[in-house]
Amino acid sequence: MPAPAVLGFRDLGLVPYEPTWHAMQRFTAARTPQSGDEVWLLQHPPVFTLGQAGKDEHLLFPGEIPVVKVDRGGQVTYHGPGQLVAYLLLDVRRSGLGVRELVQRIEQSLIDLLGEYGVRAELRPGAPGVYVDGAKIASLGLRIRNGCSFHGLALNVDMDLEPFRRINPCGYAGLAMTQLRDLVGPLDFTEVCARLRAQLVQHLGYAEQTTLTGGIESL
Q1: Residue 148 appears among annotated catalytic residues
Q2: Do residues 28 and 145 touch, judged by C-beta distance below 8 A?
Q3: Which candidate in 24, 89, 142, 170 is catalytic?
């Protein structure tokens, strides 16, 4: 069955992590073969999340920032205001994409988005995510359940990077982090969101996009 022609986007604003995570789980559990695919665009208040492969030793001194153990792949990362998070709730089996190809398409969406700002980004073998001059600017972590994906990507746009120094980001001690503002100067967060939407629609093979209404409390 081919993927739907339309990819729906839900702009959720600044929302707490745990209710959003549980809403993703409910959404995925309730899917049918006819369910549409969605991307949730949002920001989180400060939080560290520890993926299924995560080790407590990579939490150096979290301090007052809460730590949540979650069901995505990967190690520990940080989310905070000014970081653009996109959760990809897709029927991967229906799309015909393998998980590796899906990850590659997401990464290429980010690389091309950054290229629109004149930033040359690249991949690092064996380390999912997107890098600029050796510093990580975007992280990826997915979970596939019953052929459907949830969780997604986090792009550092205009945020406080200090909390990344309290962890070994993605399990790498001393990994440098960067963000788009430090590379290009002041920018419009809403514009970055719009550009990411367009890149995901193109690279994931949809014909068009639409904006969905309703927050996580309705999901």
Answers
A1: no
A2: yes
A3: 170
